[in-house]
Structures are given as C-alpha cells and as structure tokens.
Amino acid sequence: MKKKNRRILFIILLLACAIGASVWWYASNGKDNGPTAPATAKVVRRDFSSTVLATGAVKSQVGSEVKVGARVSGKVVRLYANIGDAVKKGQVIAELEKEDLTAKVERNRAELAVAEARIADVQARLKLAETQYQRQTKLIADSFTSQEAVDNAAKELAVNQAGLNLVRRQVESAQAALKESDANLGYATITAPILGVIASVSTQEGETVAAGLNAPVFVTIVDLKRLQVDAFVDEVDIGKVHEGQKAVFTVDSYPAREFEGKVVAIYPKAVIQENVVNYDVVIDITSSYDGLLKPDMTASVTIMLEARPNVLAVPTEAVKRERGKTLLYVLTDRRTEPRVVKTGWKDGSWIEIAGGVQEGETILLSAPAQDAKKNGGK
Prior knowledge:
Elements: H1 2-29, E1 40-42, E2 44-60, E3 65-69, E4 74-79, E5 86-87, E6 92-96, H2 99-141, H3 147-187, E7 189-191, E8 196-201, E9 208-209, E10 217-222, E11 227-234, E12 246-251, E13 254-273, E14 276-285, E15 298-315, E16 320-322, E17 325-332, E18 335-340, E19 342-347, E20 350-355, E21 362-364, H4 369-377
Antiparallel strand pairs: 1-21, 2-11, 2-15, 3-10, 4-6, 4-9, 5-8, 6-7, 8-10, 11-14, 12-13, 12-15, 13-14, 15-20, 16-17, 17-18, 17-21, 19-20
Helix pairs in contact: 2-3
C-alpha cells in the first residue's frame, strides 16, 4: 500500500509540473501581441562630404631610390656601407682595386707625351720643307734650277703637312685614351649619387665583381624624405577622383595617426588583380613624417571628394532595387506607395536622392511584407 501511494503521489507531482510548464509557455509565447509596426524614416536634408576609400602602399618617388653599382670589373677592397647608414651625395661607399687601372693611366699618359713630341719633330720638318720649296720657286724664276727640283720640293712639303695632321690625330687619340683610363680609375671609387639611407647591401669586401651589360649592384639607397602613397582605387570610383583633391591615410604601424596628402596623378593604365580593375592614384604626402614612414608600408587611404551641402537624403537600407528600378516605399495616408527615385552620392549610411520624393515624407526602411513575399516568390 505504501508503494502504491508513493507511485500515485509521484504521478500527481509530474502532472502538476507539466501543467505549470504549459501555463508558463502560453503566457510567454502564446499571447497575441498584434502586428509589429514597420520601421520608418523621414526624407531629410543633409550636408554630404563624400569620400573614396582605397588600400595602397607607401612607395619611393621616382628618382628617390637608386641602385648603385660598379662600371668596371675588379675586387672590392673597401666597403664603407652598412644597412641603415645615412649617406650624403658624393660620399664614398666602396673602393675597387686600382693597380691595373692606375698603370693604364700612366701608360696612356706616356703615349700622349710621345705623340706630342712627334708634333715638334714633324713641325720642324714641315718648316724646312716650306723653306726648300720657297727657295726652289725663286731659283726657277731666274732659271737657276729645274722644274723637277721644284716638284720634289712641293711633294716634300705636302708629305710633311700630311704627317703633321696625322700626328695631331694621334695626339687627340692619346688624349681620349688618357681621359677614358682616368674615368675608369674614377669608377673604382664608388660614391653615393643621392642623399639617403642604405636600404640593402649586395656585396662584401674581397669579392670580385664583373661589369657587363648590367652593372653589378653594390647597394640600394633610398631617400626617405621623398615618399608617396600609391592608392588602388576601384574603377567604380575612379571617375570621382581628380588631381588636387585632399586625402588622408593611416598605416598599420601608427593606426592612431593620420597623415595628410593630395592627389597628384592618376595612372591611365589599369591594374588588374584577381579580375578586379583598379587604378593607381598617386598621393603626395604633405604632412611631416620624418622617421615614421618607410617604403612598402600598407596604407588605408581616404580621398576627400567635393562637398554637397543641403541635399535630400535617406538611409541607404531604405533604397530597394526591383525589376531594374530603384525604389523607395513612401507611406501616405496609411498606404504604402512604391516610388521610382534617382540616387546620387553615398555618405556612410546615407544616400542622396536626386528625385522622386520630397523633404519630410515618411518612407519604410524595408519593403512591405506583401511585396517582399511577391519578390521572394519570383
């Protein structure tokens, strides 16, 4: 009897819990709260300051990054450059062995001296030939010599004149050879062509470099005071971007700091990456960035377009695209009326409405339920 009474009591408690849970569920979920009013907004006037967002990178300006190499072959005997060193224009970076180059200069200098000495000898011969010719000319006038003697004197004069011209050309050739060997000797001392910082070093002391069609690169120098930003703007927005527009950008290294700049060029040829068409927009950095920016830093760029004050605007989510038309659902006299509208610029979560509605009208932020079902069914 005790077991039977306990079982009955347990069943009664279980039924009571089930009834209580049912009452609670109906009270919280089964209550009819009525239809929820649709979210609406007003057509208002706003000042638009539209922007174009792009991702880019900090780059060296043209001529501010130089690869310095050797124009002559030889062994590197001194290397004065280390990565990160600041260098001035004309500062010595490296020196090649110079013994053979110095010897060639001395040899060409000696050859020049010999050629110049020949000029003096040939000039003396020419002067004597001129004297002989003048003498023979006077003698034949008085019939004291023969025409053959005069002809021989004229021939000797012409030979010595040609000899003088030849020796002068030899002197010029020797001078050119000396100039060339002097230049090659100068190339053995490699100097910095610009002011900047050593970005990379690709040789070591004791290595032998061979100059060919492409000069072997010793170091790369970058002028960190001549940087720019290359921003890649989508083809959809490139028509809004023009030279002279202001821009701001940030880099990952200094996310809380904004750098200023302006658009100075737009590359006419597109850059296609993964079937996405972008255009390279060059931004000149106008704010101070000494020691902060470095080449190839990733930049998040915002290009400021012209301001459009006092334009009609609605929240972007209210604009619908249906059957090739741009619509707003306008609430009039408790009825919903679809209106075809013309849109303009976007500014954050707002979009300009260039026609189709008036200021102060009420619009739905989402399509009416009946229209949404139709569109979903189609």
